Protein backbone atom coordinates (compact mmCIF):
# COMPACT_ATOMS: atom_id res chain seq x y z
CA UNK A 1 0.00 0.00 0.00
CA UNK A 2 2.74 2.38 0.95
CA UNK A 3 4.62 1.75 -2.25
CA UNK A 4 1.59 2.38 -4.41
CA UNK A 5 0.72 5.55 -2.56
CA UNK A 6 4.31 6.70 -2.87
CA UNK A 7 4.35 6.14 -6.62
CA UNK A 8 1.13 8.01 -7.27
CA UNK A 9 2.55 11.55 -6.87
CA UNK A 10 5.48 10.71 -9.14
CA UNK A 11 3.21 9.21 -11.77
CA UNK A 12 0.89 12.22 -11.59
CA UNK A 13 3.84 14.62 -11.89
CA UNK A 14 5.19 12.74 -14.89
CA UNK A 15 1.77 12.80 -16.57
CA UNK A 16 1.42 16.54 -16.03
CA UNK A 17 4.90 17.16 -17.44
CA UNK A 18 4.11 15.00 -20.46
CA UNK A 19 0.86 16.90 -21.10
CA UNK A 20 2.59 20.28 -20.79
CA UNK A 21 5.38 19.16 -23.12
CA UNK A 22 2.87 17.93 -25.72
CA UNK A 23 0.96 21.21 -25.49
CA UNK A 24 4.17 23.20 -25.93
CA UNK A 25 5.34 21.04 -28.82
CA UNK A 26 2.02 21.34 -30.67
CA UNK A 27 2.08 25.08 -30.21
CA UNK A 28 5.63 25.94 -31.25
CA UNK A 29 7.13 23.07 -33.25
CA UNK A 30 4.36 22.35 -35.77
CA UNK A 31 6.23 24.16 -38.56
CA UNK A 32 9.45 22.28 -37.77
CA UNK A 33 7.65 18.94 -37.75
CA UNK A 34 6.03 19.74 -41.09
CA UNK A 35 9.42 20.57 -42.66
CA UNK A 36 10.94 17.37 -41.24
CA UNK A 37 8.10 15.27 -42.64
CA UNK A 38 8.52 16.77 -46.11
CA UNK A 39 12.27 16.24 -45.97
CA UNK A 40 11.92 12.61 -44.91
CA UNK A 41 9.34 11.95 -47.62
CA UNK A 42 11.70 13.26 -50.28
CA UNK A 43 14.76 11.50 -48.86
CA UNK A 44 12.92 8.19 -48.74
CA UNK A 45 11.32 8.59 -52.15
CA UNK A 46 13.46 5.83 -53.62
CA UNK A 47 12.78 3.12 -50.97
CA UNK A 48 9.12 4.11 -50.83
CA UNK A 49 8.87 4.31 -54.63
CA UNK A 50 7.04 7.55 -54.27
CA UNK A 51 7.22 8.54 -57.92
CA UNK A 52 5.92 5.17 -59.08
CA UNK A 53 3.13 5.33 -56.52
CA UNK A 54 2.09 8.81 -57.70
CA UNK A 55 2.11 7.67 -61.33
CA UNK A 56 0.09 4.58 -60.48
CA UNK A 57 -2.40 6.71 -58.57
CA UNK A 58 -2.71 9.06 -61.51
CA UNK A 59 -3.34 6.18 -63.89
CA UNK A 60 -5.89 4.68 -61.51
CA UNK A 61 -7.74 7.99 -61.13
CA UNK A 62 -7.77 8.47 -64.90
CA UNK A 63 -9.39 5.07 -65.41
CA UNK A 64 -12.22 5.68 -62.92
CA UNK A 65 -15.65 6.15 -64.46
CA UNK A 66 -18.10 8.90 -63.49
CA UNK A 67 -20.28 6.28 -61.78
CA UNK A 68 -17.56 5.85 -59.16
CA UNK A 69 -17.54 9.55 -58.38
CA UNK A 70 -21.35 9.57 -58.19
CA UNK A 71 -21.25 6.70 -55.70
CA UNK A 72 -18.42 8.33 -53.72
CA UNK A 73 -20.07 11.72 -53.38
CA UNK A 74 -23.49 10.17 -52.76
CA UNK A 75 -22.15 8.00 -49.95
CA UNK A 76 -20.32 10.98 -48.43
CA UNK A 77 -23.52 13.02 -48.58
CA UNK A 78 -25.49 10.20 -46.91
CA UNK A 79 -23.00 9.75 -44.08
CA UNK A 80 -22.70 13.48 -43.39
CA UNK A 81 -26.50 13.76 -43.50
CA UNK A 82 -26.87 11.04 -40.86
CA UNK A 83 -24.28 12.80 -38.69
CA UNK A 84 -26.20 16.06 -39.17
CA UNK A 85 -29.50 14.47 -38.12
CA UNK A 86 -27.90 12.95 -35.01
CA UNK A 87 -26.16 16.21 -34.09
CA UNK A 88 -29.39 18.18 -34.50
CA UNK A 89 -31.36 15.69 -32.37
CA UNK A 90 -28.69 15.74 -29.66
CA UNK A 91 -28.60 19.55 -29.68
CA UNK A 92 -32.41 19.80 -29.38
CA UNK A 93 -32.48 17.29 -26.53
CA UNK A 94 -29.41 18.28 -24.51
CA UNK A 95 -28.58 21.78 -25.75
CA UNK A 96 -25.04 21.01 -26.90
CA UNK A 97 -23.13 19.36 -29.73
CA UNK A 98 -22.21 15.70 -29.23
CA UNK A 99 -18.90 16.01 -31.12
CA UNK A 100 -18.01 19.18 -29.25
CA UNK A 101 -18.88 17.60 -25.90
CA UNK A 102 -16.77 14.52 -26.60
CA UNK A 103 -13.89 16.71 -27.76
CA UNK A 104 -13.99 18.91 -24.67
CA UNK A 105 -14.57 16.06 -22.21
CA UNK A 106 -12.14 13.44 -23.52
CA UNK A 107 -9.73 14.82 -26.11
CA UNK A 108 -8.90 18.24 -24.68
CA UNK A 109 -7.62 16.93 -21.30
CA UNK A 110 -5.31 14.52 -23.17
CA UNK A 111 -3.79 17.44 -25.08
CA UNK A 112 -3.19 19.39 -21.88
CA UNK A 113 -6.06 21.83 -22.22
CA UNK A 114 -8.03 23.18 -19.31
CA UNK A 115 -11.82 23.02 -19.39
CA UNK A 116 -13.61 26.34 -19.38
CA UNK A 117 -15.81 26.28 -16.33
CA UNK A 118 -18.96 27.96 -17.51
CA UNK A 119 -20.39 27.59 -14.06
CA UNK A 120 -17.64 29.68 -12.52
CA UNK A 121 -19.34 32.89 -13.50
CA UNK A 122 -22.90 31.83 -12.89
CA UNK A 123 -23.14 33.18 -9.38
CA UNK A 124 -20.79 36.16 -9.44
CA UNK A 125 -22.16 39.13 -7.62
CA UNK A 126 -23.71 42.23 -9.07
CA UNK A 127 -20.67 44.27 -8.15
CA UNK A 128 -18.53 42.29 -10.56
CA UNK A 129 -17.10 39.78 -8.09
CA UNK A 130 -15.90 36.83 -10.17
CA UNK A 131 -15.42 34.47 -7.25
CA UNK A 132 -17.53 31.37 -7.94
CA UNK A 133 -20.37 30.69 -5.55
CA UNK A 134 -21.86 27.30 -4.82
CA UNK A 135 -25.35 28.74 -4.45
CA UNK A 136 -27.49 25.65 -4.67
CA UNK A 137 -30.70 27.68 -4.27
CA UNK A 138 -30.29 29.05 -7.81
CA UNK A 139 -31.21 25.66 -9.28
CA UNK A 140 -33.34 24.31 -6.45
CA UNK A 141 -36.74 22.93 -7.40
CA UNK A 142 -39.63 24.43 -5.38
CA UNK A 143 -43.16 23.26 -4.78
CA UNK A 144 -45.59 25.21 -6.97
CA UNK A 145 -47.75 27.18 -4.48
CA UNK A 146 -50.66 27.25 -6.97
CA UNK A 147 -50.44 23.64 -8.13
CA UNK A 148 -53.61 22.14 -9.53
CA UNK A 149 -55.58 19.11 -8.34
CA UNK A 150 -54.61 15.84 -9.99
CA UNK A 151 -58.03 14.26 -10.11
CA UNK A 152 -60.14 17.34 -10.78
CA UNK A 153 -57.82 19.17 -13.19
CA UNK A 154 -54.77 17.23 -14.42
CA UNK A 155 -56.74 14.01 -15.04
CA UNK A 156 -59.49 15.87 -16.89
CA UNK A 157 -56.85 17.27 -19.24
CA UNK A 158 -55.55 13.75 -19.85
CA UNK A 159 -59.06 12.46 -20.60
CA UNK A 160 -59.75 15.26 -23.11
CA UNK A 161 -56.36 15.72 -24.77
CA UNK A 162 -54.86 12.25 -24.36
CA UNK A 163 -51.59 13.74 -23.07
CA UNK A 164 -49.93 13.45 -19.70
CA UNK A 165 -49.41 16.97 -18.27
CA UNK A 166 -47.07 15.79 -15.49
CA UNK A 167 -43.72 14.07 -15.81
CA UNK A 168 -42.66 11.13 -13.65
CA UNK A 169 -39.87 13.27 -12.24
CA UNK A 170 -42.39 15.89 -11.12
CA UNK A 171 -44.73 13.32 -9.58
CA UNK A 172 -41.83 11.61 -7.82
CA UNK A 173 -40.86 14.93 -6.23
CA UNK A 174 -44.46 15.35 -5.05
CA UNK A 175 -44.42 11.88 -3.49
CA UNK A 176 -41.22 12.76 -1.63
CA UNK A 177 -42.77 16.04 -0.45
CA UNK A 178 -45.84 14.27 0.88
CA UNK A 179 -43.80 11.68 2.75
CA UNK A 180 -41.52 14.30 4.30
CA UNK A 181 -44.20 16.88 5.06
CA UNK A 182 -46.98 14.58 6.24
CA UNK A 183 -45.12 11.67 7.82
CA UNK A 184 -42.17 13.59 9.29
CA UNK A 185 -38.61 12.41 9.76
CA UNK A 186 -39.25 10.00 12.64
CA UNK A 187 -37.69 6.57 12.34
CA UNK A 188 -40.62 4.75 13.98
CA UNK A 189 -43.72 5.28 11.85
CA UNK A 190 -47.21 4.40 12.97
CA UNK A 191 -48.86 1.50 11.10
CA UNK A 192 -51.21 3.83 9.25
CA UNK A 193 -48.24 6.02 8.28
CA UNK A 194 -46.48 3.05 6.71
CA UNK A 195 -49.55 2.29 4.59
CA UNK A 196 -49.75 5.91 3.41
CA UNK A 197 -46.02 6.02 2.75
CA UNK A 198 -46.42 3.06 0.42
CA UNK A 199 -49.44 4.73 -1.20
CA UNK A 200 -47.56 7.95 -1.97
CA UNK A 201 -44.77 5.94 -3.60
CA UNK A 202 -47.08 4.20 -6.06
CA UNK A 203 -46.68 5.46 -9.64
CA UNK A 204 -50.12 4.28 -10.72
CA UNK A 205 -52.93 6.63 -9.55
CA UNK A 206 -55.37 3.74 -9.15
CA UNK A 207 -52.91 1.94 -6.88
CA UNK A 208 -52.60 5.04 -4.68
CA UNK A 209 -56.38 5.38 -4.41
CA UNK A 210 -56.74 1.66 -3.61
CA UNK A 211 -54.18 1.97 -0.80
CA UNK A 212 -56.07 4.93 0.67
CA UNK A 213 -59.32 2.94 0.69
CA UNK A 214 -57.50 -0.01 2.22
CA UNK A 215 -56.24 2.21 5.05
CA UNK A 216 -59.73 3.54 5.74
CA UNK A 217 -61.15 0.01 5.97
CA UNK A 218 -58.39 -1.12 8.33
CA UNK A 219 -58.76 1.89 10.59
CA UNK A 220 -62.54 1.57 10.64
CA UNK A 221 -62.21 -1.74 12.49
CA UNK A 222 -59.51 -0.29 14.75
CA UNK A 223 -61.85 2.61 15.52
CA UNK A 224 -64.48 0.19 16.77
CA UNK A 225 -61.97 -1.21 19.25
CA UNK A 226 -59.97 1.80 20.48
CA UNK A 227 -62.33 4.58 19.32
CA UNK A 228 -59.77 6.11 16.99
CA UNK A 229 -60.72 8.34 14.06
CA UNK A 230 -59.72 7.15 10.56
CA UNK A 231 -56.35 8.55 9.44
CA UNK A 232 -56.97 11.80 7.62
CA UNK A 233 -53.98 11.46 5.26
CA UNK A 234 -56.07 8.96 3.29
CA UNK A 235 -58.75 11.63 2.78
CA UNK A 236 -56.06 14.00 1.49
CA UNK A 237 -54.93 11.46 -1.09
CA UNK A 238 -58.52 10.77 -2.17
CA UNK A 239 -59.21 14.51 -2.49
CA UNK A 240 -56.11 15.01 -4.60
CA UNK A 241 -56.31 11.87 -6.74
CA UNK A 242 -59.87 10.53 -6.95
CA UNK A 243 -62.12 13.59 -6.78
CA UNK A 244 -63.11 14.56 -10.32
CA UNK A 245 -64.55 17.99 -9.38
CA UNK A 246 -63.40 20.79 -7.11
CA UNK A 247 -66.63 20.47 -5.09
CA UNK A 248 -65.94 16.81 -4.36
CA UNK A 249 -62.32 17.59 -3.48
CA UNK A 250 -63.50 20.29 -1.06
CA UNK A 251 -65.87 17.83 0.63
CA UNK A 252 -63.07 15.32 1.17
CA UNK A 253 -60.70 17.99 2.48
CA UNK A 254 -63.34 19.15 4.97
CA UNK A 255 -63.76 15.57 6.12
CA UNK A 256 -59.99 15.27 6.49
CA UNK A 257 -59.84 18.53 8.45
CA UNK A 258 -62.60 17.37 10.78
CA UNK A 259 -60.71 14.14 11.46
CA UNK A 260 -57.44 15.97 11.94
CA UNK A 261 -58.77 18.56 14.36
CA UNK A 262 -60.07 15.82 16.66
CA UNK A 263 -56.63 14.23 16.93
CA UNK A 264 -53.87 15.44 19.21
CA UNK A 265 -51.60 17.65 17.14
CA UNK A 266 -48.11 16.35 16.75
CA UNK A 267 -45.67 18.21 14.51
CA UNK A 268 -46.47 16.21 11.42
CA UNK A 269 -50.22 16.40 12.05
CA UNK A 270 -49.86 20.20 12.24
CA UNK A 271 -48.17 20.20 8.84
CA UNK A 272 -51.05 18.19 7.44
CA UNK A 273 -53.65 20.54 8.94
CA UNK A 274 -51.87 23.50 7.33
CA UNK A 275 -51.85 21.72 3.99
CA UNK A 276 -55.56 20.89 4.21
CA UNK A 277 -56.55 24.46 5.15
CA UNK A 278 -54.52 25.84 2.28
CA UNK A 279 -56.12 23.47 -0.22
CA UNK A 280 -59.55 24.37 1.16
CA UNK A 281 -58.74 28.04 0.53
CA UNK A 282 -57.71 27.16 -3.02
CA UNK A 283 -60.97 25.25 -3.51
CA UNK A 284 -62.92 28.31 -2.36
CA UNK A 285 -60.93 30.47 -4.80
CA UNK A 286 -61.67 28.11 -7.70
CA UNK A 287 -65.37 27.94 -6.80
CA UNK A 288 -65.71 31.74 -6.85
CA UNK A 289 -65.82 32.37 -3.09
CA UNK A 290 -62.81 34.66 -3.30
CA UNK A 291 -63.39 36.74 -0.15
CA UNK A 292 -63.72 33.55 1.87
CA UNK A 293 -60.49 32.27 0.31
CA UNK A 294 -58.66 35.51 1.17
CA UNK A 295 -59.84 35.30 4.80
CA UNK A 296 -58.71 31.67 5.08
CA UNK A 297 -55.29 32.52 3.68
CA UNK A 298 -54.83 35.50 6.00
CA UNK A 299 -55.85 33.41 9.02
CA UNK A 300 -53.45 30.67 7.96
CA UNK A 301 -50.53 33.08 7.60
CA UNK A 302 -51.35 34.64 10.99
CA UNK A 303 -51.74 31.27 12.74
CA UNK A 304 -48.58 29.70 11.29
CA UNK A 305 -46.16 32.56 10.55
CA UNK A 306 -43.10 30.28 10.58
CA UNK A 307 -44.27 28.27 7.57
CA UNK A 308 -43.16 30.90 5.08
CA UNK A 309 -41.55 28.23 2.92
CA UNK A 310 -45.03 27.29 1.70
CA UNK A 311 -45.30 30.70 -0.05
CA UNK A 312 -48.96 31.13 0.95
CA UNK A 313 -48.58 34.84 0.23
CA UNK A 314 -48.45 34.01 -3.50
CA UNK A 315 -51.89 32.41 -3.24
CA UNK A 316 -53.07 35.50 -1.39
CA UNK A 317 -51.66 37.84 -4.06
CA UNK A 318 -53.47 36.01 -6.84
CA UNK A 319 -56.79 36.07 -4.95
CA UNK A 320 -56.45 39.78 -4.14
CA UNK A 321 -55.72 40.55 -7.80
CA UNK A 322 -58.90 38.71 -8.73
CA UNK A 323 -60.79 40.97 -6.29
CA UNK A 324 -58.93 43.96 -7.82
CA UNK A 325 -57.94 44.96 -4.29
CA UNK A 326 -54.75 46.63 -5.49
CA UNK A 327 -54.12 48.48 -2.21
CA UNK A 328 -54.10 45.17 -0.33
CA UNK A 329 -51.81 43.70 -3.00
CA UNK A 330 -49.38 46.59 -2.46
CA UNK A 331 -49.47 45.98 1.31
CA UNK A 332 -48.57 42.31 0.83
CA UNK A 333 -45.77 43.24 -1.58
CA UNK A 334 -44.38 45.77 0.92
CA UNK A 335 -43.93 42.90 3.36
CA UNK A 336 -42.57 40.22 1.06
CA UNK A 337 -40.77 42.19 -1.70
CA UNK A 338 -37.80 42.76 0.56
CA UNK A 339 -34.14 42.59 -0.40
CA UNK A 340 -33.45 40.00 2.31
CA UNK A 341 -36.22 37.63 1.17
CA UNK A 342 -36.08 35.26 -1.82
CA UNK A 343 -37.76 36.56 -4.94
CA UNK A 344 -40.15 34.87 -7.34
CA UNK A 345 -41.82 35.67 -10.63
CA UNK A 346 -45.07 36.35 -8.75
CA UNK A 347 -43.41 38.99 -6.57
CA UNK A 348 -41.49 40.72 -9.37
CA UNK A 349 -44.20 40.69 -12.04
CA UNK A 350 -47.00 41.66 -9.63
CA UNK A 351 -44.95 44.67 -8.57
CA UNK A 352 -44.42 45.53 -12.25
CA UNK A 353 -48.15 45.12 -12.92
CA UNK A 354 -49.12 47.57 -10.19
CA UNK A 355 -46.69 50.21 -11.46
CA UNK A 356 -47.64 49.61 -15.10
CA UNK A 357 -51.35 49.82 -14.27
CA UNK A 358 -50.89 53.39 -12.98
CA UNK A 359 -49.64 54.69 -16.37
CA UNK A 360 -50.57 52.09 -18.99
CA UNK A 361 -54.04 53.41 -19.84
CA UNK A 362 -52.53 56.65 -21.20
CA UNK A 363 -49.20 55.30 -22.43
CA UNK A 364 -48.30 55.81 -26.07
CA UNK A 365 -44.93 54.85 -27.57
CA UNK A 366 -45.05 57.74 -30.07
CA UNK A 367 -45.82 60.31 -27.38
CA UNK A 368 -43.17 58.88 -25.06
CA UNK A 369 -40.55 59.08 -27.82
CA UNK A 370 -41.36 62.77 -28.41
CA UNK A 371 -41.59 64.07 -24.84
CA UNK A 372 -39.65 61.38 -22.98
CA UNK A 373 -40.82 59.23 -20.09
CA UNK A 374 -42.38 60.70 -17.00
CA UNK A 375 -41.29 59.67 -13.52
CA UNK A 376 -44.19 57.24 -13.12
CA UNK A 377 -43.58 55.75 -16.56
CA UNK A 378 -39.87 55.40 -15.82
CA UNK A 379 -40.68 53.57 -12.57
CA UNK A 380 -43.00 51.23 -14.47
CA UNK A 381 -40.38 50.51 -17.14
CA UNK A 382 -37.72 49.86 -14.50
CA UNK A 383 -40.07 47.48 -12.69
CA UNK A 384 -40.67 45.60 -15.95
CA UNK A 385 -36.94 45.41 -16.62
CA UNK A 386 -36.41 44.09 -13.08
CA UNK A 387 -39.05 41.40 -13.56
CA UNK A 388 -37.73 40.39 -16.98
CA UNK A 389 -34.19 40.13 -15.63
CA UNK A 390 -35.41 37.79 -12.89
CA UNK A 391 -37.39 35.58 -15.28
CA UNK A 392 -37.02 36.39 -19.00
CA UNK A 393 -39.41 33.62 -20.10
CA UNK A 394 -42.62 35.17 -18.73
CA UNK A 395 -43.29 37.95 -21.33
CA UNK A 396 -43.68 35.52 -24.23
CA UNK A 397 -46.49 33.77 -22.37
CA UNK A 398 -48.15 36.99 -21.23
CA UNK A 399 -47.99 38.39 -24.77
CA UNK A 400 -49.24 35.04 -26.10
CA UNK A 401 -46.18 34.55 -28.27
CA UNK A 402 -45.97 31.01 -26.87
CA UNK A 403 -48.83 28.65 -26.05
CA UNK A 404 -49.55 27.87 -22.41
CA UNK A 405 -49.79 24.43 -20.87
CA UNK A 406 -50.93 23.24 -17.44
CA UNK A 407 -48.32 24.25 -14.84
CA UNK A 408 -46.23 21.52 -13.21
CA UNK A 409 -46.41 20.64 -9.53
CA UNK A 410 -42.84 21.88 -9.04
CA UNK A 411 -41.11 24.90 -10.52
CA UNK A 412 -37.58 26.15 -10.95
CA UNK A 413 -37.21 29.81 -10.05
CA UNK A 414 -36.12 31.94 -13.00
CA UNK A 415 -36.88 29.01 -15.29
CA UNK A 416 -39.47 28.22 -17.93
CA UNK A 417 -41.49 26.12 -15.48
CA UNK A 418 -41.98 29.12 -13.19
CA UNK A 419 -42.94 31.26 -16.20
CA UNK A 420 -45.61 28.75 -17.23
CA UNK A 421 -46.99 28.59 -13.69
CA UNK A 422 -47.10 32.39 -13.31
CA UNK A 423 -48.66 33.14 -16.71
CA UNK A 424 -51.25 30.38 -16.30
CA UNK A 425 -52.79 32.11 -13.26
CA UNK A 426 -51.90 35.79 -13.83
CA UNK A 427 -52.48 36.35 -17.56
CA UNK A 428 -56.07 37.37 -16.87
CA UNK A 429 -54.93 40.01 -14.37
CA UNK A 430 -52.61 41.59 -16.94
CA UNK A 431 -55.41 41.60 -19.51
CA UNK A 432 -57.73 43.29 -17.02
CA UNK A 433 -55.32 46.23 -16.56
CA UNK A 434 -55.90 48.39 -19.65
CA UNK A 435 -52.73 48.95 -21.65
CA UNK A 436 -50.50 46.91 -19.31
CA UNK A 437 -49.68 44.30 -21.95
CA UNK A 438 -49.02 47.06 -24.50
CA UNK A 439 -46.50 48.67 -22.14
CA UNK A 440 -44.91 45.27 -21.52
CA UNK A 441 -44.71 44.64 -25.28
CA UNK A 442 -42.95 47.97 -25.90
CA UNK A 443 -40.39 47.74 -23.12
CA UNK A 444 -39.54 44.17 -22.10
CA UNK A 445 -36.86 43.55 -24.74
CA UNK A 446 -34.93 46.61 -23.57
CA UNK A 447 -33.84 44.55 -20.56
CA UNK A 448 -31.38 42.61 -22.69
CA UNK A 449 -29.46 45.78 -23.57
CA UNK A 450 -28.81 46.30 -19.86
CA UNK A 451 -27.46 42.77 -19.40
CA UNK A 452 -25.60 41.85 -22.61
CA UNK A 453 -23.89 38.89 -20.91
CA UNK A 454 -26.54 37.50 -18.55
CA UNK A 455 -24.59 34.32 -17.69
CA UNK A 456 -21.59 36.34 -16.52
CA UNK A 457 -22.98 39.43 -14.82
CA UNK A 458 -26.43 40.60 -13.78
CA UNK A 459 -27.81 44.06 -13.10
CA UNK A 460 -30.15 43.72 -10.11
CA UNK A 461 -29.84 39.98 -9.51
CA UNK A 462 -27.16 37.37 -9.67
CA UNK A 463 -26.18 36.19 -13.18
CA UNK A 464 -28.75 33.98 -14.81
CA UNK A 465 -28.04 30.35 -13.89
CA UNK A 466 -27.11 28.05 -16.73
CA UNK A 467 -28.75 24.97 -15.17
CA UNK A 468 -32.39 25.97 -15.76
CA UNK A 469 -32.78 24.32 -19.15
CA UNK A 470 -31.86 20.84 -17.92
CA UNK A 471 -34.15 21.03 -14.88
CA UNK A 472 -37.05 22.47 -16.90
CA UNK A 473 -36.82 19.61 -19.40
CA UNK A 474 -37.32 17.22 -16.48
CA UNK A 475 -40.26 19.17 -15.03
CA UNK A 476 -42.18 20.02 -18.19
CA UNK A 477 -43.85 17.47 -20.49
CA UNK A 478 -42.17 16.40 -23.69
CA UNK A 479 -44.78 18.00 -25.98
CA UNK A 480 -43.89 21.45 -24.63
CA UNK A 481 -41.06 23.37 -26.28
CA UNK A 482 -38.87 24.53 -23.42
CA UNK A 483 -37.88 28.18 -23.57
CA UNK A 484 -34.09 28.64 -23.45
CA UNK A 485 -32.32 31.80 -22.29
CA UNK A 486 -30.00 33.13 -23.50
CA UNK A 487 -30.72 31.76 -26.96
CA UNK A 488 -28.02 29.32 -27.95
CA UNK A 489 -26.35 29.56 -31.33
CA UNK A 490 -26.03 26.47 -33.48
CA UNK A 491 -22.76 24.62 -32.71
CA UNK A 492 -19.98 24.71 -35.30
CA UNK A 493 -20.18 20.98 -36.03
CA UNK A 494 -23.87 21.19 -37.00
CA UNK A 495 -23.08 23.95 -39.48
CA UNK A 496 -20.01 22.05 -40.71
CA UNK A 497 -21.90 18.77 -41.29
CA UNK A 498 -24.75 20.67 -42.96
CA UNK A 499 -22.30 22.33 -45.36
CA UNK A 500 -20.48 19.06 -45.99
CA UNK A 501 -23.72 17.20 -46.69
CA UNK A 502 -24.92 19.91 -49.09
CA UNK A 503 -21.55 20.10 -50.87
CA UNK A 504 -21.32 16.32 -51.36
CA UNK A 505 -24.92 16.14 -52.56
CA UNK A 506 -24.25 18.91 -55.07
CA UNK A 507 -21.14 17.13 -56.36
CA UNK A 508 -23.08 13.88 -56.73
CA UNK A 509 -25.81 15.63 -58.72
CA UNK A 510 -23.34 17.45 -60.98
CA UNK A 511 -21.35 14.27 -61.61
CA UNK A 512 -24.51 12.41 -62.52
CA UNK A 513 -25.77 15.15 -64.85
CA UNK A 514 -22.42 16.18 -66.42
CA UNK A 515 -20.05 13.18 -66.22
CA UNK A 516 -17.56 14.32 -68.92
CA UNK A 517 -17.20 17.84 -67.57
CA UNK A 518 -16.78 16.62 -63.97
CA UNK A 519 -14.22 14.03 -65.17
CA UNK A 520 -12.10 16.79 -66.69
CA UNK A 521 -12.45 18.83 -63.53
CA UNK A 522 -11.33 15.92 -61.30
CA UNK A 523 -8.29 15.21 -63.48
CA UNK A 524 -7.29 18.86 -63.41
CA UNK A 525 -7.75 18.95 -59.65
CA UNK A 526 -5.53 15.93 -58.98
CA UNK A 527 -2.90 17.18 -61.42
CA UNK A 528 -2.78 20.44 -59.48
CA UNK A 529 -2.68 18.49 -56.20
CA UNK A 530 0.32 16.33 -57.13
CA UNK A 531 2.26 19.09 -58.96
CA UNK A 532 3.87 20.55 -55.77
CA UNK A 533 5.64 17.22 -55.08
CA UNK A 534 7.67 17.48 -58.26
CA UNK A 535 8.26 21.19 -57.73
CA UNK A 536 9.48 20.56 -54.18
CA UNK A 537 11.89 17.86 -55.35
CA UNK A 538 13.37 20.12 -58.03
CA UNK A 539 13.87 22.98 -55.57
CA UNK A 540 15.53 20.75 -52.98
CA UNK A 541 17.96 19.37 -55.56
CA UNK A 542 18.88 22.82 -56.88
CA UNK A 543 19.52 24.46 -53.48
CA UNK A 544 21.40 21.68 -51.68
CA UNK A 545 25.04 20.76 -52.51
CA UNK A 546 25.28 17.74 -54.80
CA UNK A 547 27.50 15.71 -52.45
CA UNK A 548 25.21 16.22 -49.49
CA UNK A 549 22.20 15.52 -51.65
CA UNK A 550 23.59 12.15 -52.81
CA UNK A 551 24.49 11.18 -49.24
CA UNK A 552 20.92 11.87 -48.09
CA UNK A 553 19.51 10.03 -51.05
CA UNK A 554 21.64 6.92 -50.27
CA UNK A 555 20.46 6.74 -46.61
Automatic annotation (TrEMBL):
It comes from Sinocyclocheilus anshuiensis. Keywords: Membrane, Transmembrane, Transmembrane helix. It comes from the Eukaryota. InterPro entries: ST7, TPR-like_helical_dom_sf. It is found in: Membrane. Its main location: membrane. It holds the Pfam family ST7. One of its GO terms (cellular component) is membrane. Gene3D superfamilies: Tetratricopeptide repeat domain. It is a multi-pass membrane protein. The chain crosses the membrane at residues 21-44, 68-91, 490-510, 517-536. Belongs to the ST7 family. This is Suppressor of tumorigenicity 7 protein-like.
